[in-house]
Amino acid sequence: MSAHPHWLAKPLAASLQQQFADDIEYQVANGCFVYDLEQLQQHLAKLQQQDVIKLWFAVKANPLSRIIQTLDQAGFNFDVASTGELSQVLAQGILPERVLNTGPAKSQRQIHAFIKQGVRVFVAESINQLKWINQAAAIEQVTPQVLLRVQLQWPEGEKNPLGGNALTPFGLSVAEWQHVQVSDFLAIDLCGLHIFQWGNMLSNEKMYQLWQQMVPPLCQLAESIGMQLRILDLGGGLGIDYLQQGQQLSWPKIIEDLAKIKSEAGVEELWLELGRYAVAECGYYLTPVVDRKTNYAQEQLVLAGGINHLLRPAITEQPFPVKLLRDSHASVKGFDVHGPLCTSLDKLGHLPLPDDIAVDDILVFGLCGAYGFTESMPFFLCHEIASEWVWQNDKLTPVRDAEPANWYLR
Ligand SMILES: Cc1ncc(COP(=O)(O)O)c(C=O)c1O
């Protein structure tokens, strides 16, 4: 994947400038997201030029209707982790057979409801979930495919938001799954294993090493529980160079490595559920500068929107890359960039920006297509909900209006 080949396309930047200048009914003034759907289409087409892996989209990364529709057109299937995500996918006209349900919080009621709605692929994250899927399948007289989610530990494990080597509720250890016998679950097709506990991997070598280490314990587990291992799902975690350090994964190398993993594991199908690697690059978050000041010799900017719209920097300490929307040839210096909330957590980073930046200038954050709008804390301090726009056929179209606090306050 290229490192932001064209940041904002020029016509898109011009159109956004116009949008901010006109700003009818404060649709952008407090912060907005924009997704370049043509950039997304091109990227997804590249990801699909292979016949090694089946690709699913992890809807949690960006559940906006137009994003889901674009992934659908590119032939992706959909990994949903909640009732809300399922209904959003189905509302786009996607058949439930193309949906996979992951997540440690699947209740018995939810599993049954998903089966009734036609979902036929589940990742079981506990023995209870496995029993509930089997029971619901028997009642509804259907035979869903079920993968067991395995949580491994490595000697040189690391921590990351999905756990790395830390103990998490995502799946179960090999030792726990070994209590299961496939022949005890007659109503389902227990045909695969799922493993995913790393995040934002940026090195092909490291990624391949991790995948390789997993194959022997997974194959042994399958054998010991009487499973013919037909499907291996390696989740997501393919990284995005948020820090712009020139580190990025090579997609052709990933495919080459996964072809080897597929043959080592002897599986018929290898699956990935991509989140950020599919959609991060197509999205931008824009918000104006409300104030600029110098404080204890540090240049500070206060923005109209911060972690109320874009939480990720506060929980990962990784800022999104930023630029000014207008052109500037002024020299660049480091600014502390803060949002509007009354917490020091509301900081989008210490970021390089032109020295002539001023109140009402508009900042554009890149790589915001994943874990943006829905991974935020929009209610604190009663600020506005961000609007969301798409860019297609040289046209900027609103998909979600900005909403004032009285929209959600009671
Ligand atoms: C089960 C599962 N699959 C896939 C993903 C997508 O991960 P990423 O955005 O790193 O590709 C996630 C993210 O949390 C997940 O929980």
UniProtKB/TrEMBL annotation:
Coiled coil: none annotated. It comes from the Bacteria. Its cofactor is pyridoxal 5'-phosphate. Residues 44-280 form the Orn/DAP/Arg decarboxylase 2 N-terminal domain. Residues 32-368 form the Orn/DAP/Arg decarboxylase 2 C-terminal domain. It holds the Pfam family Orn_DAP_Arg_deC. Gene3D superfamilies: Alanine racemase (3.20.20.10), Lyase, Ornithine Decarboxylase, Chain A, domain 1 (2.40.37.10). Keywords: Lyase, Pyridoxal phosphate. PANTHER family: DIAMINOPIMELATE DECARBOXYLASE, GROUP IV DECARBOXYLASE. Belongs to the Orn/Lys/Arg decarboxylase class-II family. This is Diaminopimelate decarboxylase. It comes from Thalassotalea insulae.
